Each structure stands twice: as C-alpha cells, then as structure tokens.
Amino acid sequence: MTNNLEIKKTILNKIKEYDRILLFRHFRPDGDAVGSTKGLAAIIKATWPEKEVLHVNEDYAKYLEFMGSENDPVPEEKFADALGIILDTGDIGRTSSKKHSLCKEIVKIDHHIDRDPYGDYSWVEDHRAAACELVVDFYDTFKDELVMTKEAATYLYTGIVTDSGRFRFREVSGETLRLAGLLLNFGIDTETLYANLYLDEFSQLKFKAHVYEAMKMTENGVAYLYVDKAMQEEYNLSQEDASASVSYMDSIKGCLCWIAFIETGDAEGTIRVRLRSRFAPINHIAEQFRGGGHACASGATVYNEDELLQLVNAADAYIKEYKETHEGWL
Ligand SMILES: [Mn+2]
User: Fold this and answer.
1) How many angstroms does the Cα of residue 263 sit away from the middle of ligand 1?
2) Residue 278 C-beta-side C-alpha neighbours within 13 Å
3) Ligand 1 centroid vs 32 CA: distance in angstroms?
4) Ligand 1 mean position to 305 CA, how many Å?
5) Between helices 174-184 and 150-163, what is the axis angle to 10°?
6) What's the CATH fold of domain 205-325?
7) Given 3.20.20.70, 3.90.1640.10, 3.40.630.30, 3.30.505.50, which CATH number is that of 2-197?
C-alpha cells in the first residue's frame, strides 16, 4: 500500500505542477470511462479553478449523453506543455484520441489487468471495481487538499454503479461501498441517475423481446446471439445498443457463458464479440480471438461465420470442462 501512496503523491504533485491537464479515456466509452474522466476533471477544477482542464475524445456514446459534453476542441499547440491523464484504459491502443502522444507527460490510472504498461507515471489496481473507485480513493487520500463537489460525486458514483453491475460483480469490496458511500454524502440525486440508466425506449424493449426469440444455446450452456445489420436497422440500434444485448442473456440457469456477436457492416466483415460469464473466467477464450479484458467480461473480434462458430465451440468446450471439474455453479 505504501507503493500506491507514493504513486498517488506523485500524481498529485504532477497535477499541481501543470497549468493544463488533458483527460483521455478508452474509445467506445462506458459510464466508468466518462465518469472517471469527468469526475477527476471536476475535482481538479473545483480545487484549482485557474487550471485549464480539457477532455480530448474523438467519439461519444449516445446513451451516456445525460452525463454531459466531454469533447472539448483542443488546438494542437495546447498539448506540448500539458499533462495527459488516461483513465480506465488498459491498453494504450484503445484511447479515445491518439493525441495523448503530444502531451509532455502521461499519467495512467486504471483498473484493468496491466498487460500493456504505459505512461510516465502509472497507477493500476486491477482488483478495483471501477476506475472511478481509484479516483474516489485519490480524493479520499488527499481530502484535506482536494475539493469534491456534488457534480464530481455524481460522475464518479455513476461510473462505480455501472462498472460494478449495480454493485453486483465480484470486484465489489467493502472499500467499493465505503467510497461509494462517501460520494452519496455529497447529495447525489440517485432517482434521476437510475432513471437515466434504466429507462428504455419502446423500440429497445421490442428488441429485447427479439433477443429472447433469436438467442441460441449450446449443449453445455453457452447462450449466444448474432445481431446482424438488418436487425440493427429494424430496431434502430446504435453499436452500443446492439452490444448491450449481451446483458439480456445474463440470467439463464445453467448458462455460465453468454456471447453477443455484433456485425459492424465494415468492408473487412468485422464482427464485434462481447463475452460474459458467471463463475468461469472466459477471457482466455477472448484472447484466442484478438481480444481480452476482465475475467468474466471481455471482448474479441471475428471476421466470418466460421470463426464465430469456432469461438462458440471453444467456449462450449471450456464450459463443459468447467462444469465437470467444479461444484456450486448455478
Ligand atoms: Mn472501467
């Protein structure tokens, strides 16, 4: 823990040292990516109003629009003397903008497995439920110096709530709840937050009904679904909406792994894969198909139906073996 205190002190000093701080997250953002960057930005701005704090992202997610804007126009000349902070991004190839390479120095703050160490200063704790949890821990460590606001607390709480599956995933610890509790005391409007997270468009519910019709199940309990372009058009789905379909399959008894294949419609025939599992870590399957991620939530890419079926078969064989060699799964 002393080590982490050292790196946290270093990061605090770096933030103090620079007049301009540029924040980056991973592309195709989720609530944690947006929450951790916007939350840290809000803390820095509240603590040091004279500092320039900007978000450098080249994409956005419509379903997170309620969290507000996070694409600041930043002219090239503003990078050379700036500190770049990249949050919630395990692999530097997945950043929301490549312009981080123009920054004078880079800080990495993340909770993914550190397979691709990067940055001049790196603080990674892969047991944390969310990158937002690290930002709240950072605030808590230096709370005599840092200013938390209701706005910052709301961003950070949103990230913890979304990345932990509403405090359901195994990474959730007593510390997660303590830090989330600390945020709640800043007066977060959780009723509005959860309305933003849960309300569905009518068409989305129709899509959900379709998912339950169309999903398939292998012999050993791998549920999977292919969301082709026609389906995405029929139900007016963004890529994020289509990817979200994976979570619709998460509560089937005896099914330890569920996978959504999303046709992107690009020239290469790219099919994006979302893998999820309960009890049995499945990221090694993702790694065999150009992907990776968390033990029970990972992503991969396949390029045709053959590869799609290979992946399903690999997952099925692994789940069969897992069930034969483990007890207590449901
Ligand atoms: Mn995250």
Assistant:
1) 24
2) 19
3) 5
4) 30
5) 150
6) Diaminopimelate Epimerase; Chain A, domain 1 (3.10.310)
7) 3.90.1640.10
Give the domain ranges of the chain: 2-197, 205-325
Asked if 44 and 50 touch (Cβ cutoff 8 Å), the reply is no
Contacts 24+ apart (CB under 8 A), 162-170: 162/30, 162/31, 162/32, 162/35, 162/130, 162/197, 163/30, 163/31, 163/32, 163/129, 163/130, 163/131, 163/132, 164/129, 164/130, 169/129, 169/296, 170/296
For ligand 1, the distance from its centroid to the CA atom of residue 10, given in whole angstroms, is 22
> What is the model's pTM?
0.79
Q: What is the full per-residue pLDDT of the chain (330 aa) written as tens digits?
A: 556 999 999 999 999 999 999 999 999 999 999 999 999 999 999 999 999 999 999 998 888 999 999 999 999 999 999 999 999 999 999 999 999 999 999 999 999 999 889 999 999 999 999 999 999 999 999 999 999 999 999 999 999 999 999 999 999 999 999 999 999 999 999 999 999 999 988 888 999 999 999 999 999 999 999 999 999 999 988 888 899 899 999 999 999 999 999 999 999 999 999 999 999 999 999 999 999 988 999 999 999 999 999 999 999 999 999 999 999 999
Helix (H) or strand (E) holding 161: helix 150-163
